[in-house]
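User: My instructor asked us to take a sequence, write out its structure as tokens, and then describe one feature of it. I'm not sure where to start. Here is the sequence I was given:
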Amino acid sequence: MGQPGSVPSADDPLRLDADEADAIAELFNIGMGEPAAALSSMLGEEVHLSVPSFSVSTRARITSEVGDELDGDQPVCAVRGAFTGPFTGEALLIFPERGTLALVGRLVPVDPAAEAPGEMEQDALTEIGNIILNGCLASLSNLIGGELSGAVPGYGAGAPAAVIGSGTDPVLFVRIDMALAAGDASGHALFLLDIASLDAFREAIRRALAGL
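Assistant: Let's start with the prediction itself. The structure tokens for your sequence are:
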């Protein structure tokens, strides 16, 4: 996984320079701040966020890296939605099943014997995903001065490969780790940007840098 501010090698045509790298981390850090605070208020518990990190990767590699941290091949729960605008891609909020039950248990009654989320738990996670993902996209829209329109997020579950994908085309991958203060629920907010949008993404970053 690329570290915050890391970039591909200098001869890589997809390389982002140091200013762009720092700006990506800063933009997503700002973008996640307000929705994470809203979620913390809703849950009555602090939500910890990692520093955003990014890399040029593939869905197959992301599945391997993130899946290993989400109990390997065990089923995961995800809220996902495509977004369009100056750049396009897909946003995902992913938690392992046990973490999902712990997370939504702050909002709805959960059967202690439950092993997987039922309809009520799925709806609760979808609402959380809507707050986090569309909240971040709305904040980014303000920062870059161009509207990012997110589809209504939908719930999905399955093995990491089924949720994230196994494609080998390059994508710009932004990752933010999330965890509740109590430590019983941790997952990831993932933003997979189409490489075809890279030039538009660079331009959006430059506009945002000028306004920060």
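For the description part of your assignment, you could build on this observation: The longest helix spans residues 18-43. Try explaining in your own words what that tells you about the chain.
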